[in-house]
Amino acid sequence: MPASENTYPLVLLTGPSGAGRSTAIKALEDVGFETIDNLPLGLLERLLSGEPLRQPMALGLDVRNRDFSRDALLSAMDIARAIPNAAADLLYLDCRADVLRRRYNETRRNHPMARQEDPTEGIDRELSLLSGLRNHADVLIDTSELSPHELRQAVQGRFSQLSDQAIGLTITSFSYKRGLPQGADIVIDCRFLHNPHWQEDLRALDGGDAAVGAYVAEDPGFVPFMTTAQQMIDGVLPGYIREGRSHLMIAFGCTGGKHRSVFVTETMAESLANRGWQVSIRHRELNRFASLPARRPICQEDGERTV
User: Cβ neighbours of residue 117 under 8 Å, at least 6 residues apart?
Assistant: First the structure.
């Protein structure tokens, strides 16, 4: 979350071992955060009770700490949120258990909670210890299908200090067959639009191809739909900013997550970038991730941000 004057982001980062915490910490360090990994929770209050923050800070917290527990971490968040010049966020990196098992099997590493046992035992213990914690996260990133490069982009897109934007936006496409994206704030259904899947010459393409986009855009409902969606997003963003939200995920879904939702996501992301927002794009079913920088400044009127 970009800092306001004299206020700096303070990110407490946690999640199961193998979900990508080290990658995320490094990504934050690369965009100007002071980072400390594996900080004992008992030292957090002492660390933050000294001089006020002078730059963004990220703290990695995990089960390797002897005093780690769900309640202890929530108490740490209360301490962080009480720091006068800190804008505290709990970043939770989630990952499916089967993916964690595969990652440990591929790297042949010992799990920190099962040094002499099969990693599966440690994964199960750790997920039980973290149970319910993800529901308290301000920012939730599911890394199950993200490469390290994509995770870096996701983290930096949400917390980069290179923009003065007051909220980070992620626009994602998805397939209803595979369920809603985790962490989605606004979900919009595109399944009423013409479906390129039933066009033999378009079926193998995706929504990033011009021919698919032209076909979807010919639907008489497309322009009214996009206009209404843009107006709705324009209307809610100032409210989310006033509530102190640092990130908003808007998800567009269709049947397969390949054609209509991809084109709508690309179109909406382009529109938002042209209106001054820095946008991250995620095509879940295509396993693609990208970012669009803000194309022009957002207007300022009477000290308030407008869209």
Answer: 111
Residue-range domains of the chain with CATH: 8-159 (3.40.50.300), 168-305 (no CATH)
Distance between CA 250 and CA 163 in Å, rounded?
A: 20
Which residues sit opposite 57 in a β-bridge?
10, 34
Distance CA 197, CA 204 (A): 8
* Cα distance between residue 24 and residue 26, in whole Å: 5
Determine the Cα–Cα distance for residues 109 and 115; give it in Å rounded to an integer: 9
Q: What are the tokens at 156?
A: 């930096």
Please state the pTM of the whole predicted model.
0.57
Q: Which residue has the tokens 């799990």?
A: 111
Residue pair 127/105 in contact (Cβ under 8 Å)? The answer is no
Element at 250 (helix H, strand E): strand 247-254
Alpha-carbon dihedral angle through residues 65, 66, 72, 78, given to the nearest 10 degrees: -40
pLDDT digits (tens, 9 = 90+) for 191-229: 999 999 999 999 999 999 999 999 999 999 999 999 999
Confidence of residue 244 (pLDDT cuts 50, 70, 90): low
pLDDT digits (tens, 9 = 90+) for 88-104: 999 999 999 999 988 88
CA distance 102 to 107: 9
